[in-house]
Design goal:
Blueprint: H1 2-29, H2 31-68, E1 73-79, E2 90-91, E3 94-95, H3 96-105, E4 109-125, E5 132-134, E6 141-143, E7 150-157, H4 161-164, E8 169-172, H5 177-182, E9 186-189, H6 191-198, E10 207-210, E11 213-221, E12 239-242, H7 243-251, E13 255-256, E14 258-263, H8 269-286, E15 289-291, E16 293-298, H9 299-342, H10 344-352, H11 357-390, H12 405-431, H13 435-440
Parallel strand pairs: 2-15, 7-12, 9-11
Antiparallel strand pairs: 1-14, 1-16, 3-13, 4-7, 4-10, 4-14, 5-6, 8-11, 9-12, 10-11
Helix pairs in contact: 1-11, 2-9, 2-11, 2-12, 9-11, 9-12, 11-12
Length: 442
């Protein structure tokens, strides 16, 4: 019994080998038709793979930027209530002390930062006795000569702000706890602002004049965007100071524009927002602030929403590319149907000398799979070449199109399905041919 089983397996292997060889021989005999059908499959799969890789690259870049800015950070700010029935009521505002209150009272956060902002006129680099003269009575610097002044955006942050905002130091140092507390006149420059003010010179240790006051540069941050090209990040143009410095020198109040709260445990953002809203609302009521409301932005929700949109875009791209695959599948089916009609007598002879229906069926199915998988392999290779060519053009860092193994695996599976669907009909027609009628046919 074992010997007979081995003979049966060997016979099936020989038949399968013969079927595959014959399938490729038939395709070679109609190489022009086969090449055109395979090309249709190649263009369809190349379009799908390339578009999905482009969308995936954009998705990857966006998620990286959100993560860099703090994926587990909840941002709080205030909004004016336009429908307030008490127009004379005091508007709710945020203070730097609110960050400390939330951190102490809420179990959801491990770091809380207050931010404020201001615009200042950059008058240049302070070189005593050359382009600026200091007024001994006030400590202000009076410009005597130098480049034309321009405006810069300043962001004030409390201690821990650089960590929460995902800002990394390139050179120099960050303010100490004492400097944050006392509001020292120092500044950490974004790389673009450092380049604009100091050019190629090292800014650390020098003084820059903002308004009428000198500020010592203690550090320069790393680039978040690209140093050159069109894809720069606005954060790179910022200048960062202690919150208290901006409040004292530029604003004259302790009002914060927003709070940034880092969540301890991912997944608790919704509960954290609810707890913080209630805490701040009660605190505002105790202070007599009843007009307006608090708004919250959750980075985790933004990531989920963006991922949902991108996944929908991928599906849409796949459907559009699927039209090309459908056209290619129709071409493959047409080639095989023509082949069945042209080879009717040949099929009849094969059936008459002992070929089984399943052997004929399998032969045509192999031809369909060879066309779709061969054309698909060329299409995937073409898509890969185009992704490499795309890297020669200006693309934001991290957004480069990339063909993942998962995308390639899905593409191959899809090609196999297309081949089966396109080949089943012609294969069944070929297998159903009556040998006697086929031999008599002209």
């Amino acid at each position: 019994m074992t010997h007979g089983s081995n003979e049966g397996v060997g016979r099936r292997v020989i038949i399968l080998r013969s079927v595959i060889i014959e399938a490729f021989a038939n395709l070679k005999a109609r190489r022009m038709q086969a090449a055109l059908s395979a090309f249709g499959i190649a263009t369809g799969i190349a379009a799908v793979v390339l578009l999905v890789s482009i969308v995936s690259g954009i998705h990857r870049m966006a998620l990286a930027q959100i993560n860099a800015a703090g994926a587990n950070v909840v941002t709080v700010f205030t909004e004016v209530d336009q429908t307030n029935s008490q127009p004379d009521a005091a508007q709710i505002v945020l203070y730097a002390s609110d960050a400390d209150v939330v951190l102490r009272a809420s179990p959801y956060f491990d770091l809380a930062v207050a931010q404020n902002s201001a615009n200042a006129t950059v008058r240049g680099v302070a070189i005593q006795g050359q382009n600026f003269v200091m007024n001994p009575a006030t400590g202000q610097f009076i410009q005597t000569r130098g480049p034309r002044a321009y405006s810069a955006q300043i962001r004030g942050i409390t201690e821990g702000g650089f960590e929460v905002l995902g800002l990394r130091l390139e050179s120099g140092r960050l303010p100490t706890a004492a400097e944050f507390q006392e509001g020292a006149r120092l500044v950490v420059l974004g790389p673009a602002s450092a380049e604009q003010v100091f050019g190629k010179a090292d800014p650390v240790g020098q003084n820059v004049i903002l308004g009428d006051w000198p500020f010592r540069v203690i550090g320069v941050l790393r680039w978040l965007g690209e140093p050159t090209g069109e894809f720069r990040n606005s954060t790179d143009r910022m200048m960062y100071m202690p919150f208290q410095t901006v409040a004292t020198v530029f604003r004259g109040n302790q009002i914060a524009s927003q709070l940034s709260l880092r969540v301890k445990t991912p997944g608790t953002e919704t509960a954290a927002v609810s707890d913080t809203r209630g805490l701040l609302t009660r605190r505002a009521a105790l202070l007599g602030k009843t007009s307006g409301h608090y708004e919250f932005r959750n980075a985790a929700d933004r990531m989920a929403e963006f991922t949902l949109v991108v996944n929908g875009l991928k599906i849409a791209v796949g459907l559009v590319g699927g039209i090309g695959l459908f056209v290619g599948a129709v071409g493959v089916a047409n080639v095989l149907l023509v082949s069945v009609r042209e080879r009717t007598q040949e099929i009849g002879v094969r059936r008459a000398i002992g070929a089984r229906k399943q052997d004929v069926f399998l032969g045509f199915l192999m031809e369909a799979l060879a066309l779709t998988l061969g054309g698909g392999a060329f299409g995937i290779l073409l898509a890969w070449v185009l992704t490499q060519v795309a890297r020669l053009f200006p693309i934001p860092a991290g957004a480069e199109p990339h063909i993942s193994l998962f995308t390639a695996a899905v593409a191959v599976t899809l090609l196999a399905l297309v081949g089966i669907v396109a080949g089943v009909g012609p294969a069944r027609r070929a297998a159903g041919i009556d040998p006697a009628e086929a031999i008599r046919a002209d």
